[in-house]
Amino acid sequence: MDSHCRALERMYVNAPINQFFRPAIHIEPATAEIRMTVRPDMHHAAQAAHGAVYFKMLDDASFFSVQSLVTEAFSTRASATARKPNFSSASSAVKRELQHQEQGITG
């Protein structure tokens, strides 16, 4: 599992979008933490971090916490901490197996 998590980390930091954001990520099974420094070019007109920064971090942390589990169904809990200029987001996946029913899939 460790090599899987490290591969996900490499994939994340090498994504073209992250050349702009320059985040750091640490992934363990069912968890992902992303850190980045919010620069002035990430501010909105009122000179504070644009909402896109918050939501990108939450979205990415949620996605990679789940991807660390590979084959499990999931729900996530996500939170963000904003203390200018360093932001952090974290997510934990709750491991659950899918139950197949005639009407569809429930989790």
Structure description:
The protein has one domain (2-106): Thiol Ester Dehydrase, Chain A, CATH 3.10.129.10. It has 3 helices and 6 strands, in the order H-H-E-E-H-E-E-E-E. It has helices at 2-13, 17-21, 51-67, and strands at residues 24-28, 31-37, 73-83, 86-96, 99-101, 104-106. The chain has a 4-stranded antiparallel sheet with strand order 1-2-4-3. The chain is elongated and about 45 Å long. 21% of the residues are buried.
Q: Could you state the oligomeric state of the chains shown?
A: single chain
Total of helices: 3
- Mean pLDDT over all positions: 79
Supply the helix-strand structural class: alpha+beta
User: What is the CATH architecture annotation?
Assistant: Roll
Query: What's the helix-strand series?
Result: HHEEHEEEE
Shape: elongated
- Largest sheet data: 4 strands, antiparallel
CATH topology: Thiol Ester Dehydrase, Chain A
The fourth-level CATH homologous superfamily is: Hotdog Thioesterase
**Spatial strand arrangement across the major sheet:** 1-2-4-3
Low-pLDDT stretches: 98-107
Strand content: 35-45%
Number of strands: 6
**Which CATH C-level class is it?**
Alpha Beta
Number of domains: 1
